[in-house]
């Protein structure tokens, strides 16, 4: 088992979260890479181990790992396992900024359609911002 991984990084998934399970895994691993909790070349648990610990289907974890690899966050070496890629934290931040912008645009379109004012949205953002 990858005890070091599990000691340094508490990954958790929830059926109450509206995001699919594989996306919960990918988002948390991306966050751990962006925050420096997972460093380049750090080994990830095998698909089977991750699935067993999180009580997920190996297919779900395989999808998460596949997406992470496709996006350049991890590298899989046949016979050796999956490892964190040498990703630039600046690139990660820029990518996350674009994601936030898309999501914010969606939220603002919805708010406008329901007559929610920009003043109210600003108050909601200020009230929700962690202190």
Describe the structure.
Helices cover 60% and strands 6% of the residues. β1 (74-77) and β2 (81-84) form a beta hairpin. α2 packs across α4 and α3 packs across α4. The model has no long low-confidence stretch (mean pLDDT 91). The radius of gyration is 17 Å and the shape is elongated. A two-stranded antiparallel ribbon has the order 1-2. The chain has two domains: 3-84, Arc Repressor Mutant, subunit A (Orthogonal Bundle), CATH 1.10.10.10; 89-128. It has six helices and two strands. It has 131 residues and is mostly helical.
Concise structural overview:
By secondary structure, this protein is mainly alpha-helical. It has six helices and two strands. It has two domains: about 5-85, Orthogonal Bundle (Arc Repressor Mutant, subunit A), CATH 1.10.10; about 90-130.
